[in-house]
Amino acid sequence: MRIDRRTALKGAMAGAATLAAPGFIPAAAQGRRETLLVVSENAPNSTDIHGVGANRPAYEASWNVYDRLMTFGVKKDERGNDHYDYEKLEPELAEEWDLRPMSVTFKLRRNARFHDGTPVTAQDVKWSFDRAVTVGGFPTFQMGAGSLERREQFVVVDDHTFRVDFIRRDKLTMPDLAVPVPVIINSALARRNATEQDPWAMNWLRSNPAGSGAFRMERWVPGQEMVFVRNDQWASGPRPALARVIWRIVPQAGNRRALLERGDADLSFDLPPKDFQELQQSRRLKIVSTPVENALNYLGMNVVRGPFADVRVRRAVALALPYERIMEQAMFGQGTPMFGGPAEPASATWPQPAPFATNLERARALMAEAGQANGFDTTLSFDLGTATVSEPAALAIAENLGRIGIRVTINKIPGANWRNELLKKELPLFLNGFGGWLNFPDYFFYWAYHSQDAIFNTSSYKNPAMDALIDRSRFEEDRAAYEAAIRGFVMLAWQDVPRVPIFQPWLNVAMQNSINGYRYWFHRQLDYRTLSKTA
Amino acid sequence: MLAVMARRMAAALPTLAGVVVVTFLLARALPGDPAAYFAGPAATREAVEQIRAALGLDRPLHEQFLLYLRDLARGDLGVSITTGQPVLHDILARLPASAELTLLGLLFAATVGITLGVLAALKPNGWLDNACRVVATLGVCLPAFFTGLLLIYVFYYLLGWAPAPLGRLDAFSSPPPYVTGFFLVDSLLAGDAETFVSAAQQIALPAIALGIFAVAPIARITRGSMLAVMGSDFIRAARAHGLSRRKVVVAYALRNALLPVVTTLGMVFSFLLGANVLVEKVFAWPGIGSYAVEALLVSDYAPVQGFVMTMGFLYVLLNLAIDLLYRVIDPRVEVAA
């Protein structure tokens, strides 16, 4: 047994050190004050956000190691926490820009340098944007969402001037240049490591970041840890307070909580809702909960085949869900209810509470009206990876649907297979969530309700009236007409109910009380640049 | 001896070939679709097909198998999509972590198990024997991950004696220069006492959690085997000749009782390598078990195949090592090819 007296003493000393008066701070504690230890469940699999299969944690690595031309400003949310401001674009690598109707010209910072000391030029920007629209997959898709589709759109004017030509007027173009995808890569360095088969250096950049960002990757042990150090030459913003960030992978949620409660780890996302509820009550840690913008968790139905093709059955389902019970027993209150709202849209925002509330009488009447008085059998599917929340929710839903005659078998699908099943669009009934990076209702509806039938339109819902409203709002420049279109499609979504809204998820983060400067981002990853620690 | 080893290795080749075929087929029989997974949440059908082609998954199965064999012959186990690294590199980096943990767990289990077994056999049905029975039963009943969570809860969370369950080293130490990949050995070789202490503190709880599970079979087999030997004629003769009790028990009885124990140790070792998976998860231990499980969850074929191959190879080597150990313990045993 190696838990001997010395270990115990060491622990006691560490405890004493945290209690020590400011006059007595051991050297180790001083280094510790500039070092942040983050623990998370999943490990990044890349540092290149353009890479095939780059996962969400990889976006975090990319966000902190690379710069983009612009970034978003900051505001306070209703709870008084820092929240990025999607209406305010601020300079990052570009110190200023000139927005014309059909183009935008960026002036790059002259003192900006990549981590290897090479100056950042407009050629680097062009190479990086060309790469994003060429390599296919997620980056190309995300660029396309802002009408950034062709390499000819990106023009080098001189070494420090760069222009983007628009192919159409699109309100999403400018914000799309500040999302995590259009990073600026050190093109000279990347080219040196490219091969004939791999002209965009996809293989090399996966584990060798070549950015100009506020942090530099010092060490990466895949699946275990990533260590970042501050880039003291960073030119694109104020010097970060943290000198070092250690990001460790701790797969067990219980252990992450224990590490936080014992004060060994500084910050963690992804704990089960129940843990967040308990931590909030105990008040020993700082908990920040932010409703995820433009996101919605819902019960989806296949509107093409089977009993749910009948809108009356779908409305019956919407009236049969045990909303309150899901919020209490599955979410532990960690979400914003999206039910029990007024009959008509209260505003031109999204998400907003739908008019549904549990009413089994009316649900049964609707079932009878649809000729389904005797009910039917179906399966309710969910992603096993979300089981902590989805399983109790599915059980509660199955129980209530049983009361209106819908006999439900629960079908848990392993994470590896979930996307594949969604792509096939054959699941009759399923729990899922969707959120858009860019905070516009029409953006959400374009992916989730439009008959272009993207993967996110999981119900295969098609309605020409809906398409017309979405298309109109996407490029509408008159505020009143735009808002009318939004109210129109929200109302239609409630009438046709291809999906029953349940709640807006929250992004929860738990941290030590000594951590300041946490900022919510739409990409839901941690920005190290604004964080600081007090002793 | 060398000839025996060579013949044994040659005899293992068909086994390994079987392992290759079975893992290849099993990986493809899994219900996931790696292309859909890695195409990302925003993928269209075309994007998924693109990825499928890039991964070579659109070719017929026999063609995929031939390609796989060709790569294997070159020592190329493929690239893991989950970590983004070559599988061979991942496994070589992670195997020492698993091996160090398993060996230490086994050492703990063997020390405790053999001691308990011998003591229990010396006074059958005494209080120690009964205590041994209780410990053994409890150890077997509690799954290793549960013991692990319990140990963390008590020794880390409640008492604060053990360090944070953060893997092989605490967050502020860096790994010793690579020699064997075993941090305990490497840090000693580098003369770095601080890292050694950190590594030892980190490995203590997971090794114990793993070891507790294996104490039971070792203790029970030792006890049974010791009882049989202690009752045999040559022990009576030794006693009659007035040899010290210590000499009788340790030099004569234990050595003769050890053969079945070694067999059990071999079995327990292979078994611990498997039980590792859960303990690694609980303690954030970067071993090959957790690596394989993570790959399995996303249908990442290459690491799963690499893992099963490595394990197959290890088992063959382990069996050989145990056979050779028999000869050392009991020269009467012939090692057949």
Tell me what the structure shows.
- The complex is a heterodimer of chains A (535) and B (337).
- Chain A folds into two domains: 56-252 and 512-533, Periplasmic binding protein-like II (D-Maltodextrin-Binding Protein, domain 2, 3-Layer(aba) Sandwich), CATH 3.40.190.10; 295-506, Dipeptide-binding Protein, Domain 3 (Dipeptide-binding Protein, domain 3).
- Chain A is 34% helix and 23% strand.
- Chain A contains 18 helices and 21 strands.
- In chain A, strands 1, 8, 9, 10, 11, 12, 13, 14, 15, 16, 17 and 18 form a twelve-stranded mixed sheet that branches. In chain A, strands 4-5-7-6 form a four-stranded antiparallel sheet, covered by helices on one side.
- In chain A, helix 17 (464-475) runs antiparallel to helix 18 (479-496).
- The relative contact order of chain A is 0.13.
- Chain B is mainly alpha-helical.
- Chain B has a single domain (87-329), classed as MetI-like fold, CATH 1.10.3720.10.
- Chain B is 75% helix and 0% strand.
- Chain B contains 13 helices and no strands.
- Chain B has helices at 2-29, 34-38, 45-54, 61-73, 87-122, 127-141, 144-158, 183-189, 193-230, 233-240, 245-282, 288-297, 301-329.
- In chain B, helix 8 crosses helix 9 and helix 12 (288-297) packs antiparallel against helix 13.
- Chain B is globular.
- The mean pLDDT of chain B is 82.
- Chains A and B meet through helix 1, strand 1, helix 5, strand 10 and helix 9 of A and helix 2, helix 3, helix 7, helix 9 and helix 12 of B.
